[in-house]
């Protein structure tokens, strides 16, 4: 009886010289899909430093894990938690030993009322999306332009050719984007604002 072991594959060979019989039993195990939740969105007070990642949950995957926090400025930490002092979108990517990864976003808001009003003044839907996203603003605040970025700040799409100056909704084709987290920035008559969306 011979046993050969690999990371996920177990083979058993049974050989009889007299009966010339070979039996092979194959057993294949597959870890659960890696999924993470980085935590809830937070509000940052004036001159406050907050820590992201304290509420991180990881299910599935193959330990040990590696971590990468990033923002519009690029990678900022390679640890499970990170301390920040600025508002914005923060992205955590967790990778396991099989090189499978999952990502999640934490949005850190400032305490100003005007910022919160800006965030609530427009929506991106559906989120997550597969091929198309829609942007909608208030009727009195039409969209002037919309740009799509990677989480590292690379601009991927630019849209400014709206047919109507009073347009307050628009659809964007994201079918050519790879699966992952992206940023969309819109400019209107009243504000310039940024949100994230997920491409499935």
* Biggest sheet character: 5 strands, mixed
Give the total of beta strands: 19
Structural class, by secondary structure, is mainly beta
Number of helices, counting only DSSP H or I runs of 4 residues or more: 1
CATH architecture of the largest domain: Sandwich
Helix fraction by DSSP (H/I, runs of at least 4): under 10%
The CATH topology assignment of the largest domain is Immunoglobulin-like
Whole-number radius of gyration? 24 Å
- Overall geometric form: globular
Q: What's the assembly state of these chains?
A: single chain
Q: Total domains, how many? A: 3
Strands of the widest sheet, in order across it, are: 5-12-11-8-9
Strand content: over 45%
Regarding CATH, which class of the largest domain? Mainly Beta
Please give the alpha-carbon distance between the first and last residues.
Answer: 47 Å
Report on the structure:
By secondary structure, the chain is mainly beta. It folds into 3 domains: 1-30, no CATH class; 35-110, Immunoglobulins (Immunoglobulin-like); 113-199, Sandwich (Immunoglobulin-like), CATH 2.60.40.3080. It has one helix at 113-120; strands spanning 2-5, 9-16, 21-28, 35-37, 42-44, 50-52, 57-59, 66-71, 74-77, 82-84, 88-95, 101-110, 122-125, 132-137, 143-150, 155-159, 169-173, 180-188, 192-199. Strand 15 (143-150) and strand 16 (155-159) form a beta hairpin. Residues 1-17 and 163-167 have low confidence and may be disordered.
